[in-house]
Design goal:
With about 300 residues, the chain is of the alpha/beta class. Helix content is about 40%, strand content about 20%. About 35% of the residues are buried.
């Protein structure tokens, strides 16, 4: 293992000196280790590119990914072994909308099955998650975006609709869907620009000839606060409204429909921790519960008066 660590740090830094500093050993020890590894491999691994700079050979570039994979696997084993007494540790990244309520519900429901597990829930926007998955900082991530890295696997959990959230007694609260024209003259609080589905919401309003000019733009998990205070009607993912389900707000589908996808991301080739697998299943179940709460538009049907509430 020591020889692999020496090889990895020389490969990544291009320097015996810096590799020695990282590992807390002498430079001669690193040089001897690399020499012994080259002898075992039967190929030269580094060429000098100046007085203090080493350049990996093609043979080194060939074996580096395998070396890094072995070391990372050993690191995960050491972490798992250290956590055995406490039942294990998992770190879950989640977009703030999910982390501020949805994920907490899933974790609470799993406490009975995993009483000793230590869970670190890390709120992150989708664009920040992939590098943390690849580095091992996150075990899984719940994202609104599909993973772009080849080292990340994507599993689609559900697509929930964008909804209009209304205060109790609002004139539109009895509808089963709301169109852009229905919101003429209404102050609107909408999910921030840059979210995965904000562009689709803007497109719906533009196509209806009513460009969206919101009063408030904010992360989805904060929008219901403005609705509850009577400052605006809200347009957001149904997940964003979930944590306010006990407060009597009316939940109505936006029409035409806008889908808000939810994906599970994980590092490719790494077995998922049993808690993470159970968490994934719980998230799918929660999405199904949200869909049960939403009124479904039907041709010729009378307007629904269903509200967010316990399911």
């Amino acid at each position: 293992m020591r020889s692999l660590e020496a090889f990895r740090h020389v490969f990544e830094t291009g320097s015996v000196t810096r590799a020695a500093e990282r590992l807390g050993v002498s430079q001669p020890a690193i040089s001897q280790t690399i020499f012994a590894l080259e002898k075992a491999v039967g190929a030269k691994l580094f060429e000098r590119a100046g007085a203090r700079r080493l350049t990996p050979t093609p043979e080194a570039r060939l074996v580096y990914p395998a070396c890094r994979g072995v070391l990372e696997a050993l690191e995960r084993f050491e972490l798992a072994a250290r956590d055995v007494g406490s039942g294990g540790r998992v770190t879950i990244g989640a977009i703030p909308t999910v982390a501020m309520g949805f994920a907490q519900d899933a974790i609470d429901r799993l406490r009975g099955a995993f009483p000793m597990i230590h869970v670190h829930l890390d709120p992150r926007y989708s664009e920040n998650m992939e590098s943390m998955l690849v580095s091992g900082e996150l075990d899984i991530a719940i994202s609104s975006a599909i993973g772009a890295s080849e080292r990340v696997e994507t599993e689609s959990l559900a697509t929930l609709p964008a909804v209009v959230v209304l205060p109790p007694g609002h004139r539109l609260a009895g509808r089963d869907h709301v169109a852009p024209a229905d919101l003429d003259g209404e102050p609107v609080a909408v999910v921030r620009r840059g979210s995965q589905y904000r562009g689709a919401i803007d497109a719906v309003f533009a196509a209806a000839g009513r460009p969206l000019v919101p009063t408030v733009e904010a992360p989805g998990f904060t929008l219901c606060e403005f609705v509850e205070r009577g400052q605006a009607v809200g347009i957001m993912s149904a997940i964003s409204a979930w944590r306010f389900r006990h407060r009597g707000l009316a939940l109505v589908r936006l029409s035409p429909a806008v889908g808000c996808p939810l994906h599970l991301l994980r590092r490719r080739g790494v077995q998922m921790h049993p808690f993470c697998a159970a968490f994934r299943d719980e998230m799918v179940g929660l999405c199904a519960e949200v869909l049960q709460v939403l009124p479904t538009p039907r041709a010729g049907a009378r307007p629904s008066r269903r509200r967010i509430g316990p399911v």
